[in-house]
């Protein structure tokens, strides 16, 4: 009893410490954001301690807690919702009940969760996909990722689902217009959406079936983790640099040497310098976001173990060549000011525009990473609702 009381007391002290951590001045609903931030940081520290004690893995604790938010999918008066599988990959399918005289639009949505947690059955993602299906009269396919598997399995699952859904007979089955399909995702789901769109646009069988991609605060590269947004938002809110590095490395390996190397920006293998120009923020980032930061190249060859995966554009969509980017469809990108992944999205906007791709970009000046996830009970974060409205309105106007 005494030990439990001590642990509870220490948790409260940690929470109190984190909740009084200063937030950026322009954050909307700062008390809500402060509470969320404190809960996440307290959980992160607890997960680290429990992992060091050998009781549970770092990401596993987050996964256990997130499962408490997963719901049983049920239909409502506007949308039929069902669990099914496309090529053995679970998907959440949202079908509008209102009859349509013409073929429907379709959205393939990939949920976030740092590649190692989360589900399309989370309350917020279910609500977002319902809203999308109902407002657009669109078929929505929410892909259920398998966070227990490392790279490249989640990407391969997404590719499998997309190629299955884009078959003419499947599109006809669900009444989908083959010229009005969008691939979208948030956070790590945005990473996967960006890469799958690149791959599909280079596939002669499917390249004309994707009209648009929509990326919500996506992570798009693992080459340089000392961009201005990483430095500016090192401690969050919501997603700290340390937490992002831990989660991202778990997607690749359980080798504990890798996260330390990544923190120091010393993880790139020999033979990678030619890729730095593709993510060089000193030339690709708009001036206002560079501020007074000084560019230094990632350090090469410091790790004893080599990770050639960091050369792979399947992990970092920003490593695609300009000729590959030229083929991409209409693109919508949302970035948030108070987000360590901000600069990934901003650089992608620059590179796509340089490649003459039609890009729409919304930058949320008071935005935070993961805002969509907190737009439902118990937080009802207004910035998350604003982002969802911008996303759905863009789809309605452009898809």
TrEMBL record:
Keywords: Disulfide bond, Hydrolase
Active site location: 187, 339, 369
PROSITE patterns found in the cross-reference section: LIPASE_GDXG_SER (PS01174)
Record carries keyword Hydrolase: yes
GO cellular component: membrane
A Pfam family it matches: Abhydrolase_3
Domain Alpha/beta hydrolase fold-3: residue ranges: 107-256, 311-371
Molecular function via GO: carboxylic ester hydrolase activity
PANTHER family reported in the protein's UniProt record: AB HYDROLASE SUPERFAMILY PROTEIN C4A8.06C, ALPHA_BETA HYDROLASE FOLD-3 DOMAIN-CONTAINING PROTEIN
Family to which the UniProt record says this protein belongs: Belongs to the 'GDXG' lipolytic enzyme family.
The protein's name in its UniProt record: Arylacetamide deacetylase-like
Organism per entry: Lynx pardinus (Iberian lynx)
Higher taxonomy: Eukaryota, Metazoa, Chordata, Craniata, Vertebrata
